[in-house]
Sequence to fold (193 residues):
Amino acid sequence: MPYPYHAEQRALQDRFDTRRLADALSERNVRDHLDDGDREFVERLDMFFLATVDADGMPECSFKAGDPGFVRILSPGEIAFPNWDGNGMYVSLGNIAANPAVGLLFIDFEQQKRLRMCGVASIDTDDPLVGEWPEAQLVVRVALTRVYPNCPRYIPKMQLVERSRFTPRRGVETPVPAWKERYRDVLPARDRL
Fold:
């Protein structure tokens, strides 16, 4: 399934003589599902970046993280991940409710590898998977439309020093982040310090 290049992308490919390369990359790498290598890659990562677009076409990008395996591969064409307590703005999830088109970028900074995914997202507070993640507020499911590896050459090599102590885990009380102290008067009851 080739990448659906639009006219502006084609114009730049022609200007820099990369149309043949772009077509070859698309023909050889772009698909609508995850393969076994993709599954292994995604399930060992602890973070990704989520791009959404609001009802007016304004893009947003957010960082999503958890312990390795927090993104679940439900089938070769569908993934799911939890939404945990955040800053309460619900920008990404509100955008998904208004426009379900999403892009996801998974990067392994230690092994310098990345994978892109595009799809159609849905959110559900009553999803049967919500109990699979401690403290999950809801589940985001993404029906994949495009999956493809991305050039790793500019990825800096980094190493994990410490996982976030704020990631919800079974049997461990999740601390309230200090920044919420400044907003004590407007916090939900569950976060009042």
